[in-house]
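Audit log entry. Action: structure prediction of a protein-small molecule complex. Ligand: magnesium ion. The ligand was supplied as SMILES and no pocket hint was given, so placement is left entirely to the predictor. Protonation state taken as written. Sequence taken verbatim from the request; no trimming, no tag removal. Recorded inputs:
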Amino acid sequence: MASEESAGKLRLAGLTKRFGPAGRRLGSAGRRFGPAGRRSASSGEGGVTAVDRLDLSVPAGSFFALLGPSGCGKTTTLRMVAGLEEPTGGRVLLGGEDITGLRPYRRPVNTVFQSYALFPHLDVFENVAFGLRRRGVPDVAGQVRRMLALVQLDGYDRQRPARLSGGQQQRVALARALVNRPRVLLLDEPLGALDLALRRRMQLELKRIQTEVGVTFVHVTHDQEEAMTLADTVAVMNAGRIEQLGPPAELYEFPATAFVANFLGRSNLLAGTVLGRGGDDVLVEAYGRRFSVPADRARTLAGAALLGVRPEKVRLAGTADQVPDGHQWIDGTVSDAAYLGVSTQYLVRTGRGVELSVFVAADGEAPRVPVGSAVVAHWHPRHAFLLTHSSTDTNADSSVDTNADSSVDTNADSSADTNADADAATGAGSVEASRS
Ligand SMILES: Nc1ncnc2c1ncn2[C@@H]1O[C@H](COP(=O)(O)OP(=O)(O)O)[C@@H](O)[C@H]1O
Ligand SMILES: [Mg+2]
């Protein structure tokens, strides 16, 4: 029996989902298909491996974000946790108990979808009360009122969903899920339909609510800023697999792969060769120049490597003799300058065809550097990091943002009104499971 403490601990062990070849689509008639030819989850032999031997541990009571581009397998992962999709392999464990074979409504898990999936014919109060009534729970009114207060919707009890704003509807969806006291709340791009300002406000709200209820939140998003704002732990997912998992600052400061380095913020990645150790540093040759990285910031000690440095860690000087002691540099020409108010983003094209991205904070001190200027881009080695250069890294040598897929996920669960999804949303029956 799981202790109260670990009851919300979620573990995915080797979780895998393989969809059949096109034409013999499994699941709900192709509604999850993205644009043809999208390089997302690994495909082959006509099938798609949407989730590929995923291992993941989510501590009880934590705010966990699953971050990745559209099509990388986030929704499929959540649906397997909710019981809406049957895994091809692997297990789902909650509080140490194997729930892989449990029917969705028997799992102490609720889901909040991007589309809210509210009942249009029921008012706010009845939407929230739905799961409680189905299970014949006493004191429905008291519990619903407490939930509406939690999401700051007191006084809206008798409104129909259609009369509410997007943000308010999302709050109702949250209240409706949380009123069932799930051990884990799954949120699938829940703020994706809101405009930017409202999304930022709702992010803070979500965080407050999670802290207040202490339920384990697993939040799926393709928005790196959202993941970093909300989560204690972020797992970066790519093509069905987890590339790196950790606190946001750790992932940002020391990414494990080129994908993470460019999905969580941006990075300049210089392709080079490791020359070896030199004291506490690792020495690298790239573009005919030598660079170093502290050994504890190097993920490889030999062979082909990518020397990474974040654009905001790079400074611009006019000439090499203006570069501070201890800094490393590469010279080039400013090929683009974008003034963004809080910063100016420069592109510096070096003699060897590498383009560096440089963000200069608008602190009122730094002069604007005109396009065409000869400059020296420099940084302190403690801000650099070194990655293994694998053949699959496509974004080496460029600072181009790989968030190409950051367009809003079109997999909005518009068909969330299927029975299973409605159960997942309202949690009808979920208390049965948590009583055990
Ligand atoms: N029912 C399905 N049948 C076939 N392929 C699917 C199905 N659901 C998802 N896929 C495919 O699995 C991959 C992952 O999809 P999904 O989990 O929805 O990604 P995400 O939520 O990260 O955008 C995609 O390539 C998608 O096209
Ligand atoms: Mg999705």
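Audit: result stored. The radius of gyration is 24 Å. The chain is about 20% helix and 30% strand.
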